[in-house]
Amino acid sequence: MLSRPPEHFLPDGYSLAEGLDRFDVARAHGWIARESYWAPGIPRALFETSLRGSLVIGVYDEGGGLRAMARVITDRATFAWVCDVFVDQTQRGRGLSKAMLAHIRAHPDLQGLRRMHLTTRDAHEVYRGFGFTELTGVDRWMEIRLVNPYGSLTSP
C-alpha cells in the first residue's frame, strides 16, 4: 500500500491540501471537541494553537468543504506524532483517511525519521496497512497523562 500515491485513495471530486489557508477550523474543532474520544471538550483556542504547531492536512470536497483532517506534530528530522485523524461521519468508507496516511508516509519532510507514532482505539488494521506496528520497547516509555484535561463528561 505504501507505493500508492495519496490520490489513489481519493474519490473523484475530492482534493487533499496541507496548511491552514483553506482549513475550516470551526468544523475541525467541532469534530475533535464533540465527536472524538481523545480530546472531548478541548477549548477552541487550545485547538487552534495545536494546529499552528503542526503539519495540518485536510481533505476537501468539490465545494471546498472540509471532509477529513489529520495533524502531524514533528521536528521534521527525527520524530513525528500522527494525531487528530478524523473523517466526517457522512464521508467514512471512501478512502479519505487512507489518502491522508499515504500523504503523510510520502511527505518529503517525514522521510528517514527515527520514529513515527500514533495512538488508536479502533483503526489498527488501517494503520498497519501503512507500516505502523505495535509500540516496541514499551518498558522504556514513560508519560505524564492528564485524564479528562478539558473537563468533559466523556471518558477517554
Structure description:
The protein has a single domain (6-140), classed as Aminopeptidase. Helix content is 26%, strand content 20%. It contains five helices and five strands; from the N terminus they run αβααβββαβα. The chain has helices at residues 6-9, 25-35, 44-52, 96-106, 124-128; strands at residues 15-18, 55-60, 66-74, 79-87, 115-117. The chain has a five-stranded mixed beta sheet with strand order 1-2-3-4-5. The chain is globular.
Any chance you could write out the topology, listing elements then pairs?
Blueprint: H1 6-9, E1 15-18, H2 25-35, H3 44-52, E2 55-60, E3 66-74, E4 79-87, H4 96-106, E5 115-117, H5 124-128
SSE string = HEHHEEEHEH
CATH class designation? Alpha Beta
Averaged pLDDT, please?
A: 92
Give the biggest beta sheet: 5 strands, mixed
Second-tier CATH architecture = 3-Layer(aba) Sandwich
Domains counted in the coordinates: how many? 1
Q: What is the rounded Rg?
A: 15 Å
The parts where pLDDT drops under 50 for at least 5 residues are none
* Number of DSSP strand runs: 5
**Structural class, from helix and strand content?**
alpha+beta
The global form is globular
Strand arrangement, largest sheet? Answer: 1-2-3-4-5
The percentage of residues in β strands lies in 15-25%
Number of helices: 5
Helix content: 25-40%
Structural descriptors:
about 20% strand, alpha+beta, Aminopeptidase, 5 helices, 5 strands, about 25% helix
